[in-house]
Amino acid sequence: MKLCISFLFASSQIRDVDAGYHGTSGPMKIADLQLTPLVEAFLNAGRELSYDVLDVNGPNQLGQS
Length: 65
Description:
Blueprint: H1 2-11, E1 12-13, E2 28-29, H2 37-48
Parallel strand pairs: 1-2
């Protein structure tokens, strides 16, 4: 499991997030969520149920992204 996590961390590239949970210089570019009206409706529905919008790959996985 640790080998898999190490590989994913080393191969991903994402900006403007906590570098402790994501890679920043790998070949796989990760993009931010595109906020379309459907995505906004989904996130708002989750907020009504008290779910935070967060990075589920970060320190807390209880929420939505």
